[in-house]
């Protein structure tokens, strides 16, 4: 029986790479010192012992992943604990749907174009082909910024990292 699954990967490729590393820990380059299976250790016990080490290994250590336990408590405790930003959920309910890219509809040109928006972090205007701005999720907040600008700001305390865990 399935005990749990891990979800929230940014792409199918990232999920497949994680799955392969989980199934082949000694062949994966992601774990520097992969644990070995103990004598008489069940495969699921080994997989549960390996999971937190994978979640703490780059490139997955900074992704907003979630662990969904399919059985109610008590379920095994993961040791060591997963990174603090990894959320543990319970229940076999449906997963939130992954948003699919929408096709852009051609809209008629406006007579007056509004002034170009600016990044609230660096103050520069958006370029026509630039990445869309990241906006604050709170409706009254008008903040919008370039993704690289926000990443630099959120990583000021961790300059050696590429992805911020929060901000």
Sheet with most strands: strand arrangement: 1-2-3
Distance between the termini: 38 Å
Q: What are the low-pLDDT stretches, counting only 5+ consecutive residues below 50?
A: none
Tell me the total number of β-strands. Answer: 5
Portion in helices: 10-25%
Structural class: alpha+beta
Give the count of structural domains: 2
Largest sheet: 3 strands, mixed
For the residues shown, what is the average pLDDT?
A: 82
Write the layout of secondary structure elements.
Blueprint: E1 4-7, H1 12-23, H2 43-55, E2 66-69, E3 87-90, E4 134-135, E5 144-145, H3 147-154
Parallel strand pairs: 2-3
Antiparallel strand pairs: 1-2, 4-5
Helix pairs in contact: 1-2
Biased composition (Basic and acidic residues): 104-113
GO molecular function: 5'-flap endonuclease activity; crossover junction DNA endonuclease activity
Keywords: Endonuclease, Hydrolase, Nuclease
């Amino acid at each position: 029986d399935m005990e749990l699954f891990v979800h929230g990967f940014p792409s199918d490729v990232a999920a497949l790479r994680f799955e392969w590393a989980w199934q082949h820990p000694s062949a994966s380059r992601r774990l520097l010192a992969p644990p070995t299976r103990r004598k008489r250790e069940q495969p699921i016990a080994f997989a549960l012992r390996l999971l937190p080490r994978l979640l703490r290994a780059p490139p997955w250590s900074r992704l907003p992943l979630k662990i969904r336990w399919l059985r109610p408590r008590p379920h095994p405790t993961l040791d060591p604990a997963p990174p603090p930003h990894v959320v543990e959920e319970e229940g076999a309910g449906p997963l939130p749907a992954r948003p699919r890219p929408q096709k852009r509809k051609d809209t008629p040109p406006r007579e007056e174009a509004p002034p170009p928006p600016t990044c609230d972090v660096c103050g520069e205007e958006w370029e026509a082909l630039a990445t869309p701005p990241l906006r604050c999720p709170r409706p009254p907040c008008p903040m919008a910024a370039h993704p690289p600008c926000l990443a630099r700001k959120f990583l000021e305390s961790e300059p050696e990292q590429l992805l911020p865990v929060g901000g």
